[in-house]
Write a structure and sequence with these properties.
Distance between the termini: 12 Å
Number of helices: 1
Strand order of the largest sheet: 1-31-30-29-28
Number of strands: 34
Radius of gyration: 20 Å
Strand content: over 45%
Amino acid sequence: MSARVVAVGFLAAILPLAAPAGSSAGDAGAGAWKGTWSTPGPTLASVLAADAGGTVAVGYDGDVRALDASGALRWRAHVDGGDVGNEPALLDALVVVASADRISALDRSTGALQWERRAPESRVAAGALSDGTDAVLVATRRGELIVLDASSGTRRARAWIPGAAPSGAPYVWLEGALGIMAWSTPGSCCEIAAIDVERDRLAWHASITHRSTVPVIHRGRLIVGTSGHRTGSARVTAYDVATGAVQWRTQVPGRFGTRLWGDAAGDDVVFANDAGSVVSLDVSRGTLRWASEAVEPSGEAHPKLAGDRVFLTPRNVGAVEIDRRTGAVIQSGRFEPDVYVHSSAGLADQFEVLVGNGIESAIWAFGPADAAPESS
């Protein structure tokens, strides 16, 4: 079976495909990706973020590239600080990048630097506060949450998580007036805290004593997968974002770990497990919808929902396409040797992935027609 791809330099044959287990090249479920578009990415590929306004890719060295919906380069800029390893935050008017020692805000239309702030080892989120104004939320390794005015970078509020001692930059989300931070410590798998950033008070705090995934926030719920329970099975638990109360808890097959992720859109939330499988649950009730077949055992995988598909990148060296409604594996493939997935994004009608070999990189986009099997 041959793959149809769009050539970009050394990545001209990036997706040689193999039929899913139990199928053959002639089966209806075994197709080939051809790609909606592809374009060169940052030299030292690192992270990717995308929304309806376009795509932004950032290299470890601070090379920032903004693309429109068709993959055309809008602008290219550079941010200082180096070691960019966390996804940029996107607003209608700004791109916010966290490097090793600072936060840089770039004009989304031009790439011009709007403001900078010192903030070592941090992650950023962005969104609207309850008063409707845009803000940037910064979570630091010192256990603090800083709220910045998006237009000027001036500090609006600052809060400390009592007793927080993250072992790395915490994950962070902004949900109206709530700043939510999740972090790991040497003595704990995961700590989650929600701060009312407008009143500077702790809203709730939860300690998770089992190995856990990176949480997902969607439709007023914080959802996380955990392993290591006495039953030997894994669980997915949903907490109310506003109060921390458990809304549902569901046993699922497989095991989870700290480098496994999930994604949510519409009524669905999906998590990858270390067997190379994906589980899908109903966001509101926690009902297990399906568990896909195991494709590639992996301790690190980032599933993304895109249209009627789920895309999985196990071990960062391949790609798997799964039917969002049934969990059936449609097709899977491996990249060329030494080519790795650095980051990916799922949109309403498109999946995007940033791949590279440490010297060159490319951004690929796959739409619904591209992911559909080829006709015989």
